[in-house]
Amino acid sequence: MTSQDNVPMTRAEKRQARRIRRFDNPWLNPKLMWGAGLLLAIILIGLIGRLLWNLDLVFTGSAQLKLPPVGFENLRRQPGVWDHPLGTDGGGRDMLALIIIGAPNTLFVGLLASLIGMSLGIFLGFSAGFLGGRTDDVIRVGADVMITIPPLLILVVFQSAFGDVTLTMMALLIAGFVWQSPTRLIRAQVLSMKQSGYVQMAQLSGASTRHIMFREMLPNLVPYLFGSFIASVTTAIVTAVGLEVLGLGPQRIPTLGRTIYEAINAGALIQNLWWWWGIPTLLLGVMFIGLLLINLGLDEVSNPRLRKLS
Asked: Do residues 88 and 63 make contact, with C-beta atoms less than 8 angstroms apart?
């Protein structure tokens, strides 16, 4: 040991060392934290906004029509007022009230559809990769067939047949088209992990199939599962918004896609009512950026080489 190693650390160096140890955790990388912060902010909009804002303004005719956001003027030279800081739409509904209710509803559909699809994907992926044989053939072919079917076209037919649906029913319909990718991903990972030493040792020790799948293999797949879940959330939200912009989906429940549909249907683009469709579109962009950052952060968690490069 050299004399340099025996030199005591200063107080500033000790604080720096503690800070490095505290944040030297792949789960605390900036991309993951920023993405989670953006999604948390959207959730808080719905939770805190319900307590601080009058949600009765979400009903048609509850406010003056076509008021712009504060700091802007509409075509009739009417300025925005603080009673409606984000303006009002063509039906006299407060945009802030629509956002407080609509943004969490849109995120709820994506999360619920992905949670159901992910649960199904975990079960099918483990079954196909670990059991193999005819089970693997049936699940693999079924996933390959389903992934070639355009989901939006099928969902348009289903939604048209059901008519007005609830958010939960819409999430269930979308979940039927987001399980294929998690199934294929988990199957591929299980096939590679099945040949690893610790799995073979567990088999030789007499461990049950359930123990090997959920106690030995599943913890090692957590970063991949999270990444696949976030990708499924993005797909589910895009699908839900696409249906709503086409006029399908919930008719009486405010969502971001439904608000954009009503703006387009009422000619908001021609009337220069940019806040009617622009604010929901901006919030959707923030939502997708948050999901993208979380996905990139999870890639760094599962891949040490990416952490070193960043």
From this structure: yes
Dump pLDDT digits (tens) for 157-186: 877 777 778 889 889 888 888 888 888 888
Query: Which of the 8 DSSP states describes residue 73?
Result: B
Query: Would you state the torsion angle of the CA atoms of residues 30, 218, 39, 112, taken in this order, to the nearest 10 degrees?
Result: 170
In the block, tokens 């509803």 appear at 105
- Displacement of CA 1 from its chain's centroid (Å): 52
Contact 297, 35 (CB under 8 A): yes
CB 241 within 8 A of CB 260: yes
Q: pTM of whole model > 0.90?
A: no
Q: Is 86 helix (H, G, I), strand (E, B) or coil?
A: coil
Give the C-alpha separation, 236 to 222, whole Å.
21
- The distance between the two most distant Cα atoms of the chain, rounded to a whole number of Å, is 80
* Inter-residue contact 81 to 88 (CB < 8 Å): no
